[in-house]
Amino acid sequence: MKPSLFALTVALFSGHTFASNAINFDYVGAGYAKLKQDNFISHDGYTFEASKQFADSWVASAQYMSTSGKGTMSDIDEILEAKVLTNLHIDGEIDYWSIGGAYLFAQDDNSTIELAARFNRLNVDYNILETEQILSSGSYLIEADAPHHFNLNDHTNTYTLQTNYHYAFSESASVIAGIGYEYLKDAEQKHELFYQFGGNYNFAQNFTLSALYRNIDIYETYSVTLRYNF
């Protein structure tokens, strides 16, 4: 590594600090949200979020996300000598809300470690139309069942513990990276490790553009929000 490049690396990640406004826990925000559950269709919608820091190191926060989507899932089954194509035409909604608290460990003026605990709820409402198509009937002359409609309405509560690292590159730009554990009370897979990462950019006084991606294996969330800092 050339000496100049080494010096630049040290300058970026050493103890150099500045009075950063990029790491902020006092805001309200709204914007675009996307949620994808396991192998189901993706859902797009909107989200609202709020956060408040108090007593220097404590943070309370909340988020609500409402998404909807349409799509088709297909599967081929072999029944006797026949091959049957089953199509599920899905029109669904998923709502997600979360409340929690965190404790902050300030490393310096431009980095903070956040230990957080959250309670979350996923509400799922699917309207499904099932249709069948005989691809090959063999010698049994199997006929397709008539189309039928059914509704899937369910919810699960989840509990989250996570650690996030916030780092500010300047007075206006910061990143966040985190890992955690989530327990899903009413799901088949109850124990999930997850990760998340995102960034924030203060483009005007009191206004921040924020983006966050979160992967919990059986579902993923994406959000891009406009925040007002107070």
Structure description:
The chain is mainly beta and 230 residues long. The protein has a domain at 39-69 and 92-121 and 157-229: Beta Barrel (Porin), CATH 2.40.160. The protein has one helix at residues 3-13, and strands at 27-37, 42-54, 58-79, 82-108, 111-136, 148-168, 173-184, 191-204, 207-215, 219-229. It has a 10-stranded antiparallel barrel with strand order 1-2-3-4-5-6-7-8-9-10. Strand 8 and strand 9 (207-215) form a beta hairpin. It is elongated. The two termini are 44 Å apart.
Strand line-up of the largest beta sheet: 1-2-3-4-5-6-7-8-9-10
- The level 1 CATH classification of the domain at 39-69 and 92-121 and 157-229 is Mainly Beta
| Residue share in β-strands | over 45%
Distance between the termini: 44 Å
CATH superfamily of the domain at 39-69 and 92-121 and 157-229: monomeric porin ompg
Short description:
With 230 residues, the protein is mainly beta.
What distinguishing features does this structure have?
ten-stranded antiparallel β-barrel, mainly beta, 5% helix, Porin, 1 helix
Sequence-ordered SSE layout with sheet pairings:
Blueprint: H1 3-13, E1 27-37, E2 42-54, E3 58-79, E4 82-108, E5 111-136, E6 148-168, E7 173-184, E8 191-204, E9 207-215, E10 219-229
Antiparallel strand pairs: 1-2, 1-10, 2-3, 3-4, 4-5, 5-6, 6-7, 7-8, 8-9, 9-10
